[in-house]
Every structure is written in structure tokens, then in C-alpha cells.
Specification:
By secondary structure, this protein is an alpha/beta fold. The chain is built from 41 helices and 38 strands.
């Protein structure tokens, strides 16, 4: 139950030094520090919960409060729109959080009144906290329900409390409607974390609205409810302050019977808001100069620990970041992005950290040839500073016992003492590192447990059931007087059910559970007595004693065998019976110790009633069982180490099976090719460990989704690995590490040789490549379903249809029909003329090939690849993974190797001119940038850092380098186009790039109705326009011109290497301020605010208050770009003379640019078209 880690002064001093350094150098951490005056004011208001929360929210209004993982919405391979997580966290302020909570409370005010009940079901997140705070405002009772519980069990709870509203995350909507159907008291359902751009979210919402019972007034998304609340008179806070009023009901898991609701009064809940040091019991009362609390919460809000993390962090003015996946499969990524200062750990996460670290140590040792001990410190430091963010100063582990070995290891990893706490839903915090906490503990005592052989007279230490009185003790269970009477003694002590030993006054050590219901390290409950009665009937068993520990994730057993059966026979018998009884994997003992004699009264192992005496059995066999635990753990570590060294040489399926067996402790007979990882006892966290282990062994990417997908058995995982290994073999296994070196902090052009990315064998064969064909009959186009790609597709279809040629579009999809459907979606935006043009041209000249530019051979068969190599005359390559948050290493595969694969095809059979779409981000950090110079000389070295778009810009730079090398080596004709902002198509309805910053800005200006007097700095001495604003320029080109220019200039190239900066270079005074003028002239009302900071503050608040659809499409995730006024510039900051001259010189009759004299300006008509398109898409109301 408790493990005390005593670190020496060295670690304590090191933590103190890190804290001081972070406070001096880390602005976010310093800004999150608690304000002692606020803490004192909040403490004085105890137990007025609403008043306390209101002070925290108001006094810290401008601080970031909650953070969540940013994401984009993109089409999946099947065409459905899904979330794609980004490598950053977005935050909302205390002020915005409270504003949303007040508006939601107002919206629920017609049903949620003081002392009614509001139930919440879902994964912890920012929306969940809004709902919690809204409940405080209404004065209703919060009832957090256990996420993932069976609908029938939730319906029983709902029937007991009769909630008037049910707040639910979108993934559990079907459960919510089932509960509402059984509980007519539920009048409103509010849906959290809904995004109407995501197809699954919309489908779930539509189905819920169809199936909801008539007793439900409405099912609203959170944003819809907030927007409705904003139109109503704001609901006042609760007036009465009754410390004994029910504030929250926290239902137990029901592991020992029917769930029961522990009553948390306003006095109890207010304590969470009156302390800011839950995470550090050694904290001094003086908060000045203390680093701020920044936490990552992945615990359910239906558990007291999860609520404590959130509310105490907010009470301290800190920041709570939330894990991005309910299955915790992204937890390590979340840690790296959140960079918490305080870690609330649970045993399974401790085990994940330990296994990940040990795996990295083994891998580093294997690759460097050094010993594990030699690389250990370096690996742990790297993991501490990168994977875990480098800011953890204190850590607490709780919710279940954790082994001392694991805590020691995690303490070493974090370089801070991990404190072990013990508490309960009913009593709150009780022990820290085995020491009784006073407060909140007022009194405790031990009671004898004669049926298990524990007594307060035991020596050397008294042992017995722990009974408690605390100042946070619940008064009982809701509507369950019988259970309340059972759980409390006659003199008011709470019976914990835990047997402990008192090693000295106020020092307790966990020993056992009174009811023989044990909670394992991964959180599963096992009823030992029930299992023993089942296993006693096994053919090879005479008697059995099950042994477990909250520090371990599996059971062992002591067995008196029948007829002298050996260990293997007994284990087979137990496993056969477990299958017959359909027991869970964690209920099956992993190994056994054979007893030398039967359990009898005479040898003291049975009581007079022939019941097992667990203390006597533990005394007799405890050492052997602990030895077996140790042997199993050491064997697991050794097996995984062996697999890392040699597993890659064995058949893949064999190694996958052995890895699963080693990690999960399965018997070999269980691990069949059709076994699913979760059926073998794995969960999302162990799946992450498993995926990491396989990646270490085979050195290929194994996503967690491949491991836990419903269709993935072990054979499917092996197939994935074989395919990825085959891809690596086909591409010469080029990786970021093989080209630039592992952990490189810079990328050099001279590293991106053709030999490094394509391999010497291919280069030898390419020496005989045929010449360029003069007639372009077949064009291969990548990325045709992207924004620019669709217009390039149309341009080339027009050309090829006129000459009887073909455009081959390489598109991802399950089938050609599926891939064609993805293309159709790009053009189906409500414009009949566009749709007609697309379908007519496609039916005439389009060929769709299912493939992926990031795969070897472009993801097609050898036969298809040979056909393309022979048929294709020209390649147009705009496809790329566009992500401005990901680092270069993660973009290396799709963008650099993807471009290398295009070069491979272009150099196979005959030379095929390549049109390559790059980006102006290539120019970032280059002082003397030349438009048509040699990129290898202009930018020979690129720093790899975390700056915005560094990874994306570097990946496109690398693509340019590879193609320049191909031109030098083989004369491959290459035309590079570096584009900036590609604006809407001026003609076709709905054809604008909704996610880009310009569209988001136009939408946001219209939706909020406010703009700054000027977007530009007024202190630079720049000339001013007629309105007295700095004269500036906004760079952007319409999509039709961009596509036509690229097609015309790139499509005519048959030799040489040319580069064009596709920019708007005009010094025309057309700026964002001008865009606002034109929006107003289109009929929209926009109020201009003189002071820029005032505008930005109001703008930010207004963005956060927008309805869901507008909010998602607004500039909110990119608002940092407008945090300060911009420098006014005259024309484009980058050279575009070569591009401009080429456009002016293109006068070939019939060419796409024949009637264009110059690069177009941003125009009033195009801005007006943006307004019409946003109306057509339903993102702004039609006037």
C-alpha cells in the first residue's frame, strides 16, 4: 500500500536548483505561480464553493487555465472527415472558461436549479470542466459517472439520483440516450467535444437526436448550449451557503457490489479549492517565488484523484493540460507537449514509463555497442528532458499500490522523489509515503480481523483493519442507509476494509484486504475467495491459495496438487477451467508454487472452520511467491532484451508472438496468430509498450492503432511489419537517422545525396535512362485531392483531353472507386458548372491509380509501377504532408523520401520532367535568398528546432535538394514553384481553402464584427494611406492563376532546372486593412478599435464564444499570429522577378496565361467572393 522513497540531500538540492532555474527562465511556469493574496482570499471564503470558484476565475482571468491537444480535420483514406492530432496544445483562459460556464449554467437554468442533479459522462477535458463549473453556478449537485460503464449500471444510478440534465462526451452519446430512455427525469442532454466537421461526431449526434425519448427537451452540443445561454438573462449564482449541502456524488466502481454514491458536501469539495499543494506535502505556506503548477490530467473525473488534479491546479492559478486520447495511447506525446511541472501518476503509467525507458536503454546499448549501465544516465536524461518535458519537479503516485522497485526507477527517471499516497473516495487523503496526514486525519485505530488472523496484539507490529475519522470524511452514501451503517462503526469511524500494520505511531503499511477483494496494479479488482472456490474444482487441484499484490498486475497461486500433478499440468488445468468459466485474463494465475503439504488445522494454515488463514499462508509461502514474482519480472526483462537483440532475425510472426507473451505473461498456447492483443490481456498503455518494443526490434513504425484495431490480430500486426520492412528494403532503408544522423540538430544539403536516399544499386541502373519525350501524352499527378492539386488536375485534364492524352492521379484509397470518390468530394462544393466541367473532363481523360507517394514503388504493384514508368511522360508533384507543427524528422518520410520516390520514377525507363511544389518557408532564416539560385548554395545548412513551420519548410527544402541533385547527375528536367498564400478560386462557389489563415481571418472578422484600426505597427516611419494607416501589402494569389501559371511554366519544360517564387510582388498598398474595408463594403458590419491590445483581447474572447462551426473554422488556433501588430512591408519580402518575367513573357496562343499581362493583385471582387463562399458553406449568415 505504501512505499517510502528516501532520497538524499543530493536529489533534494538538485530539484530545488531546477525549480529556481525554471522560475527564473521559464515564463509559462513563472506566470502560472499561485498568487498568495488570491489563495488567502479563497481560503477565507471556505466553504462557500461558488464564491471561491468565482474569485479564482476572476482574479486569474487573463491566465491560461486549460490546455488541450490541437487537431486538424482531414479526410481519411475512406473519404470521411476525421481528427488529425497536431504537435501542440491550445489553451483557454480562466476568463473564457468562466464565461462559458456561466453561459452554460444559464442555458441549463430552466431545469438545473439548486439541489437538483446534473450527471456528467465522459473523458476528462476542457469541455468537461466547463460543465463542472456550470453545475457549481446553478447550485445543482454534480454526479460524475464512470466512463465506459455498462448502460444498465448507469441507468440504475440515474434512477437513484434522477438527474435533470446529462452532459456527455460525443463518443458515449448512444449510452446517454439509452440512460435517458430509462430515466424520464433527464430533460436536457449536452454533448461535449463535438466537432461538426467530423463525420463520426455528426453521425452520432444525428442518431442520438433520432433515438432520444420524448421526455428529453433537446440534445445540444456544448457550443450550441453556450450560444443559447448567451442570449438569455445571465443566471445568478446560488444564494444559500450550507456547508452540509450535497455538492457532488461520487459513485464507487461497484467492484464489491452495487455502485454506491459517496456524499461529498460543499465543505468537503471546497477543500479542493482552498489548497494549492496537493502535489507537495512539504510545501511551505508561503507561495511567493514558487514555480507554478502545470499538470497533465489523464485520470477520469469520476475518480477523486482526477478531480483533485484539476481543481487544486486551478485553485493555484496553474494550467491543466488534458490527455488527447481516452485510451491514453498518446500519453507520452501529451507529456512532451504539456511539459508538466507536477506529475500525478498511477501504477500503470509508472510501468509504462519504466518499460519505455528500459526499452530505450536496451536499444541505445545495442546500437552503440556499450553496456546498458553505460548509456542508462544519458537515456534517462533524454527521456526526462524531451519525452516528459523537462519540467517535472514533484510527482505523486496513487489510486493503487506500486512496487518499491518501480517507484525507485521512476524517481531516478524523473530525478525527483516520487511520493506514494493512499486515500479513498470516502475519506480523502490519508497517507503520504506511509505517514498519516494530519490534517485531514483526525483519528485512526486498528480493529482485529479474526477471520483472517490479524490482531492488534500481533508482533512485531499491531495489525488490523484501518478505521478513520477525517475532516474530509463523507457523511454516508446517498439513499443507502443500510450501506452507510455497515461502513461506519458505532462511534463514527469509517471502515476502510484495508488491513494495515502500524510500524510506529502514525506510520502504516498496507497488508491485505478484509474482504479479499484485491485491486491489482492496473486497476482491476479480483475477488480472491470467489476465484479460489472456482479453481478448487480444477482436475489437477486439491487446494489452492491465490496470492496477489496491488503492486503487481497479475496473480500467483500456492497449489496442493491432485495425484502428484506437476507444475505444467496444474497450470494447464487452471487455464482450461478459466476458459470454461470465461474468466478475465487477470483472474488467471500466471504461475504457481507447489505446496509441500496440504493446508490443515494442524499445520496452522486453516482455521477451526476450515477457512484459509491468509497471514499464516503468507508467512509460510510469502518468500517463495515474492521470489517467483522477481523471477518472472527478471525473465520478462531478459526476454524483451533478447528480442531487441535477435528478434529481427527470426520469422516476424514468431517474434510478434514471443513479444506479446513476454510483455503480457501469456502461456505459449494462448498466443496464436489469430489472437488479439487485447484478448490476451493487453490494454491501450501496454499496447503502446508493445508497439514501442516492436519498433525497437524491427526498426519500422508500428502505430498503436495497428495493435489495438478491432481487425488486428497478431498475424495482421506481423503483416504490417513485413510490409513496412519490405518498403524499407525497396527504398534502401533511407531514414532521417541514416541520412542526417540520429538526434541531429541540423540538416546539411551535402547529406541528401542520391546515394543516401535512393541507393547505389538504383543509381547504377539509372545511368542508362532514356531521354525526355517531346510529346506529353500521359501526366502523373500526385495530391490531386488537395486544395492546389485539384486545380492543377483540372488544368492538366483540359490540356490532355484536347490531345487525347491521360492524367493519371495517384490517390490513396482502398479501391479505385474509393479513390475516385475522394477526388469527387474535392469538386462537389455546390457549383453545378464546376461539377459538370470536372465530370466531363474526368470521364474523358482521367485515370485513377490507388497508391501513396510515401510508400515504396508509390504503393503500387510491381506490374503497375513498370507500366507507369513506361507510360508516364511528365510528373506534377504537389503532394506533401502539410503540418507546421511536426518536426522535420517526422516529415522526413512522407515529404523527403516521398519526393525521392518521385525522382526514382522520373529516372526509370526514360527521363520525365518534374514539376515540384515547394514553399516560401524554404526561405526562412536565409538572409540573401535568391529566387533561381542553387538551393544547396543558398541554404547549405538548416537548423532543426521547434520554431513554427521549421519541420515543414526544411522537408520541402530537402525535396528541392534531392531534385537538384537528380538534375546534376542525370539531367532530369525540374521546375520548382515556391508558393505562399493560395487564395480562393474567383469563379467557382465554395472553392476556398477553409483551413488557411486568410480564410480563417475573413471569417473571424465577420463573425466577431471587430477589427483593429490597423493591423500594422505605426512607429516604423512607413508611408501612410489615405486613411492615415501604414501603407502595407498582403501577399496572396488566386487559385486559378496559381494553377495556370504552374501548369504553363512547368508543363513546357523539357530541360534544365528552374525555380520560381510564386508570389504577389506588387507594392500596391493593398493590405489586411484594405481587406477589412472591402468586407465592410460588401455589406458586413465591422467595428474598428483604435487600441490594438484592446482589440486583440476582445477578439480572442469573441472567438472563444463563437458557435461550434464558426469557432472551429475561425482563426482561434492561429490567433497568436495577430497577438502583435505586424511590420508594414512594401511588396513581397522575397524576390519574385524571375516568376514575374516568365508570366509577362508567356504569350503563346492558347496558353493558360495568354491573356494575362502580369501577376494579379488581391482584388475587392475576390474578397467579396470570400464572403459569398462563407455564406454558401453556412459559416456566416446570409444577409
Amino acid at each position: 500500500m505504501t512505499s517510502t522513497i528516501t532520497s538524499g540531500d543530493t536529489r533534494t538540492d538538485a530539484v530545488a536548483a531546477r525549480a529556481a532555474h525554471l522560475f527564473d527562465t521559464d515564463a509559462e511556469m513563472r506566470a502560472a505561480a499561485a498568487d498568495p493574496a488570491v489563495s488567502a482570499q479563497v481560503a477565507d471564503l471556505t466553504p462557500d464553493l461558488h464564491a471561491m470558484v468565482e474569485v479564482v476565475m476572476d482574479r486569474y482571468a487573463d491566465r491560461p487555465a486549460l490546455g488541450r491537444r490541437a487537431y486538424d480535420v482531414e479526410p481519411a483514406d475512406d473519404g470521411r472527415r476525421v481528427r488529425r492530432l497536431q504537435q501542440r496544445m491550445d489553451t483557454i483562459t480562466y476568463g473564457s472558461l468562466w464565461s462559458d460556464a456561466l453561459d452554460l449554467a444559464t442555458a441549463l437554468g430552466d431545469v438545473a436549479t439548486p439541489d437538483t442533479f446534473v450527471a456528467t459522462l465522459g473523458f476528462a477535458g476542457a469541455d468537461y470542466v466547463v460543465a463542472e463549473l456550470a453545475t457549481v453556478r446553478t447550485g445543482a449537485v454534480a454526479v460524475p459517472l464512470q466512463s465506459g460503464a455498462a448502460p444498465g449500471r448507469l441507468a440504475d444510478i440515474a434512477a437513484e439520483v434522477e438527474p435533470v440534465a446529462l452532459v456527455v462526451d460525443n463518443e458515449q452519446l448512444s449510452t446517454a440516450t439509452a440512460v435517458a430512455a430509462a430515466c424520464p427525469s433527464i430533460r436536457r442532454i449536452v454533448v461535449l467535444d463535438h466537432d461538426d466537421r467530423v463525420d463520426d461526431d455528426e453521425d452520432r449526434l444525428a442518431e442520438a437526436r433520432r433515438s432520444a425519448p420524448g421526455t428529453v427537451l433537446a440534445i445540444e452540443t456544448l457550443r450550441e448550449a453556450i450560444a443559447r445561454g448567451r442570449t438569455l438573462p445571465r443566471l445568478a449564482g446560488p444564494e444559500a451557503v450550507d456547508p452540509d449541502r450535497i455538492a457532488t456524488l461520487i459513485y464507487t466502481s461497484g467492484s464489491t457490489g452495487t455502485p454506491k454514491g459517496a456524499i461529498h458536501t460543499q465543505r468537503i469539495v471546497s477543500r479542493l479549492w482552498s489548497t494549492s499543494h496537493w502535489y507537495d506535502q512539504s510545501a511551505e505556506s508561503d507561495e511567493a517565488g514558487r514555480p507554478g503548477a502545470i499538470t497533465l490530467d489523464y485520470l477520469p473525473m469520476s475518480h477523486l484523484a482526477g478531480r483533485a488534479v484539476v481543481f487544486t491546479t486551478l485553485a493555484a492559478g496553474g494550467i491543466v493540460y488534458f490527455a488527447s486520447s481516452s485510451d491514453l495511447s498518446t500519453l507520452l506525446d501529451d507529456y512532451a507537449l504539456a511539459r508538466p511541472t507536477v506529475a500525478m501518476l498511477v501504477p500503470r503509467v509508472c510501468d509504462l514509463l519504466r518499460q519505455t525507458a528500459l526499452g530505450r536503454i536496451e536499444t541505445r546499448a545495442h546500437r552503440t555497442g556499450e553496456s546498458a549501465d553505460a548509456v542508462r544516465a544519458e537515456v534517462l536524461e533524454d527521456m526526462r528532458s524531451t519525452t516528459l518535458g523537462g519540467r517535472i519537479l514533484s510527482a505523486v503516485v496513487g489510486t493503487a499500490p506500486t512496487s518499491p522497485e518501480v517507484i525507485d526507477f521512476v524517481s531516478e527517471l524523473l530525478d525527483t522523489t516520487v511520493q506514494n499516497n493512499y486515500g479513498s473516495t470516502e475519506a480523502g487523503m490519508v497517507l503520504f509515503d506511509g505517514v498519516v496526514q494530519r490534517p485531514p486525519v483526525l483519528e485512526y485505530r486498528l480493529d482485529d480481523v479474526p477471520e483472517l488472523g490479524y490482531a492488534v496484539t500481533d508482533r512485531p507490529y499491531p495489525r488490523g483493519e484501518l478505521l478513520l475519522k477525517t475532516d474530509s470524511l463523507v457523511p454516508g452514501y446517498y439513499k443507502r442507509p443500510d450501506v452507510t451503517a455497515e461502513m461506519f462503526s458505532a462511534d463514527g469511524f469509517y471502515r476502510t476494509g484495508d488491513v494495515v500494520a502500524e510500524t510506529e505511531p502514525d506510520h502504516l503499511v498496507y497488508v491485505d484486504r478484509r474482504k479479499n477483494v484485491l485491486k491489482l496494479a492496473q486497476g482491476e479488482f479480483v475477488a480472491l475467495s470467489r476465484l479460489e472456490s472456482i479453481y478448487a474444482s480444477a482436475d489437477a487441484v486439491d487446494q489452492i491459495h491465490l496470492h496477489g499484490s496491488g503492486e503487481r498486475s497479475y496473480l500467483l497461486a500456492v497449489v496442493v496438487p491432485a495425484d502428484g500433478a506437476d507444475t505444467a499440468t496444474v497450470l494447464d488445468s487452471l487455464q482450461a477451467l478459466a476458459r470454461e468459466e470465461q474468466l478475465e485474463s487477470y483472474e488467471v494465475p500466471r504461475d504457481i508454487v507447489l505446496a509441500a503439504e496440504p493446508f490443515t488445522q494442524e499445520n496452522g494454515l486453516l482455521s477451526g472452520a476450515n477457512k484459509q488463514l491468509r497471514p499464516a499462508l503468507t508467512a509460510r509461502y510469502g518468500e517463495a511467491l515474492e521470489d517467483r514474482y522477481r523471477e518472472i519480472d527478471e525473465g520478462q526483462t531478459a526476454k524483451m532484451s533478447e528480442l531487441r537483440r535477435r528478434g529481427a532475425d527470426a520469422p516476424v510472426l514468431e517474434t510478434v508472438g514471443e513479444a506479446a507473451a513476454a510483455l503480457l505473461g501469456c502461456a505459449g498456447t494462448e498466443v496464436s496468430p489469430d489472437a488479439h492483443f487485447t484478448d490476451l490481456g493487453g490494454d491501450s498503455l501496454s499496447a503502446l509498450t508493445f508497439a514501442t518494443l516492436l519498433q525497437d526490434i524491427f526498426e519500422v513504425d508500428v502505430p498503436v492503432t495497428v495493435v489495438i484495431a478491432p481487425s488486428s490480430d497478431l498475424a495482421a500486426i506481423a503483416t504490417h511489419i513485413e510490409r513496412r520492412r519490405g518498403d524499407a528494403d525497396a527504398t534502401g532503408a533511407a531514414t532521417f537517422a541514416s541520412v542526417h544522423g540520429a538526434h541531429a540538430t541540423q540538416a546539411r544539403a551535402d547529406q541528401l545525396t542520391l546515394s543516401a536516399v535512393l541507393g547505389d544499386e538504383f543509381l547504377s541502373s539509372a545511368a542508362d535512362v532514356g531521354p525526355v519525350r517531346t510529346d506529353t501524352r500521359t501526366v502523373l499527378l500526385t495530391g490531386a485531392n488537395g486544395y492546389l492539386g485539384r486545380f492543377l488536375c483540372l488544368e492538366w485534364l483540359e490540356r490532355q483531353a484536347a490531345v487525347g492524352g491521360t492524367v493519371v492521379c495517384l490517390v490513396r484509397g482502398r479501391t479505385a472507386a474509393d479513390a475516385r470518390a475522394r477526388l469527387d468530394t474535392a469538386f462537389d462544393t455546390g457549383d453545378p458548372a464546376l461539377w459538370s466541367r470536372w465530370t466531363t473532363l474526368a470521364d474523358t481523360a482521367l485515370e485513377v491509380v490507388v497508391g501513396d507517394v510515401g510508400e515504396a514503388n508509390l504503393g503500387v504493384s510491381d506490374e503497375e509501377y513498370a507500366s507507369l514508368a513506361e507510360r508516364v511522360d511528365r510528373i506534377v508533384h504537389p503532394a506533401a504532408l502539410v503540418n507546421h507543427a511536426l518536426p522535420y524528422e517526422q516529415l522526413f518520410g512522407p515529404n523527403v523520401i516521398g519526393t525521392a520516390e518521385i525522382a526514382r520514377l522520373a529516372l526509370t525507363h526514360h527521363l520525365k520532367p518534374v514539376t515540384y511544389l515547394s514553399t516560401v518557408a524554404v526561405a526562412a532564416g536565409v538572409e540573401a535568398f535568391s529566387e533561381d539560385g542553387d538551393i544547396r548554395e543558398i541554404s547549405p545548412v538548416r537548423a532543426l528546432d521547434e520554431s513554427y513551420a521549421n519541420g515543414y519548410g526544411t522537408s520541402k527544402w530537402a525535396g528541392e535538394v534531392v531534385l537538384r541533385n537528380a538534375f546534376d547527375a542525370f539531367g532530369l528536367p525540374v521546375t520548382v514553384f515556391r508558393s505562399d498564400m493560395i487564395l480562393a478560386h474567383p469563379r467557382w462557389t465554395g472553392q476556398l481553402n477553409v483551413p488557411d489563415i486568410f480564410t480563417r481571418t475573413v471569417l473571424s472578422l465577420i463573425a466577431t464584427g471587430i477589427a483593429p484600426e490597423t493591423f500594422y505597427r505605426q512607429d516604423t516611419g512607413a508611408p501612410v494611406d489615405d486613411a492615415g494607416r501604414p501603407r502595407a501589402h498582403y501577399d496572396g494569389l488566386p487559385a486559378d492563376f496559381t494553377a495556370a501559371a504552374i501548369t504553363e511554366l512547368g508543363g513546357s519544360a523539357t530541360s534544365g532546372h528552374r525555380t520560381f517564387d510564386v508570389l504577389n510582388p506588387h507594392d500596391d498598398g493593398i493590405s489586411l486593412d484594405t481587406v477589412v474595408d472591402w468586407i465592410i463594403q460588401s455589406g458586413r458590419t465591422i467595428r474598428r478599435i483604435t487600441d490594438y491590445d484592446t482589440w486583440f483581447a476582445e477578439f480572442s474572447d469573441a472567438l472563444e464564444s463563437l458557435p461550434s462551426a464558426q469557432r472551429s473554422a475561425s482563426v482561434l488556433p492561429l490567433r497568436h499570429a495577430y497577438a502583435r501588430p505586424d511590420l508594414p512591408t512594401a511588396g513581397s519580402p522575397l524576390p519574385a522577378e524571375v516568376f514575374r518575367a516568365a508570366v509577362r513573357d508567356t504569350s503563346t496562343p492558347g496558353s493558360a496565361l495568354a491573356d494575362i499581362d502580369d501577376i494579379p493583385h488581391l482584388s475587392r471582387d475576390l474578397v467579396a467572393k470570400y464572403v459569398r463562399d462563407l455564406e454558401a458553406l453556412g459559416l456566416i449568415p446570409t444577409l
